[in-house]
Amino acid sequence: MTPQALAPGALTPLAVEDLSMFGTDPWWLVAIKAVFCFAFLMVTVLFSIVWERKVVAWMQLRIGPNRHGPWGMLQSLADGIKLMLKEDVVVKRADKAVYILAPIVAAIPAFMAIAVIPFGPSGNEVSIFGHRTAMQLTDLPIAMLYILAVASVGIYGIVLAGWSSGSTYPLLGGLRSCAQMISYEIAMGAAFASVFLYSGSMSTSAIVESQQDRWYILLLPVSFLVYIVTMVGETNRAPFDMPESEGDLVGGFNTEYSSIKFAMFMLAEYVNMVTVSAVSVTLFLGGWRAPWPVSTFWEGANHGWWPMLWFVVKVQLLLFFFIWLRGTLPRVRYDQLMKLGWKVLIPVSVVWLMLVATVRALRNANYAVSDIALYVGAGVLAVLLLSFVADMFRARQPAEEVREKPAAFDPMAGGFPVPPLPGQTLPPVPRRRPRRERELIVSGGPDTPSDGPTDGKEASDG
User: Fold this and answer.
1) Phi and psi torsions of 346, nearest 5°
2) CA 117, CA 274: separation in Å to the nearest integer?
3) What is the DSSP track for 302-314?
4) Is residue 36 within 8 Å of residue 119, measured between CB atoms?
5) pLDDT value of residue 89
6) Longest C-alpha distance within the chain, in Å?
7) pLDDT by residue (tens digit) across 202-224?
8) E strands present in 283-378
9) CA-CA distance, 120 to 409, in Å (whole number)?
10) Cis check: omega of the bond before 239, within 30 degrees of 0
11) Cα–Cα distance between 58 and 452 in angstroms, integer?
12) Nearest in space to 243 (alpha carbons), one of 160, 157, 326, 334
């Protein structure tokens, strides 16, 4: 049976952190698991690159890769070999030590988060060379905080890459990426906190165990939607690929990189896609558990090696979601990106977290579901009523005195064109004559001086 317990006064089961099965494997089995996690990420990345190019080509009515290997399935491997054989250029103004270290700092943390992701049940479900073991490398009581920590370290690689290149555009791309990742990680942490409140644990295996009866995508739909948006922004993928806006930043933070160092940045991006998809599956989609129709008529669907199949299928579906977004939505502006992160996602995630905490507290106090719905509905109505009264009071206030007219904005004051700041307006553009009038002037129409009234001197000259 799944280890579960009831919290004092609680009506719903909370998962117990039983981590005794971890740390008992022999060293060679731990090494095999570590190699498997690394190989899983690499193979999934190679497949995802080909799959992305195939799917986007299908969406755009193109052929896509079809040369290397059967059906072009070895195209990503050929791209990797080509990048490694390219000339490795180091710009003169770069800080060479940091310049070389930055791709490594960006790539290594992307591989570390998979260590605590469960591919199957935490019990001794499978046998590897005669040893019963869990289908997970390791687990921690604070595994989700570990994932947030290693994901945050990857930001340093991108920022250092932009700074150490000694160029303006990479620096702007690095700063953009830093601001983007920090703002979206706040909303991501709030979405995680809602899961912690329902599961009663930060352990990944315990969170999956707590979804035995119902997945958290049904209990916490707002948290799932917030995390889906934040994971796209966290991985710098379209439509949030601001650090690589080739239209205004040439190439972003990796402009001055080539060969294997550029390939490491690409590898880090795709590994992060796999990692955030695996985290989403673990937190909201039941982890390694079989989907509802299969689990009802097949008792062995969640035992043996089958859970790994369900886990991989769910991850691939989320990777298809990344590809679908890239082939569908255009890139947003940077101000829209930051507005969505700070003014929409963070307030929504914090308010939703407070609502979830209130419901959990009332449930632990043995309140009925109808009473909880009544209290929550009354609180929401009270907030809406207060906001309505505040808007009415603000509308009745006398209008502010007319402010002094600001000085005219000159977009060429610094010698080069700059866009206006909020509150500034561009000067009116001189209007040209209508096209018909210009044609008449050129062709000698009635608006020309020769067609007007002539005096005697002009007549005599004629």
Assistant:
1) -65, -50
2) 11
3) GSTTHHHHHHHHH
4) no
5) 86
6) 120
7) 999 999 999 988 899 999 999 99
8) none
9) 63
10) yes
11) 66
12) 334
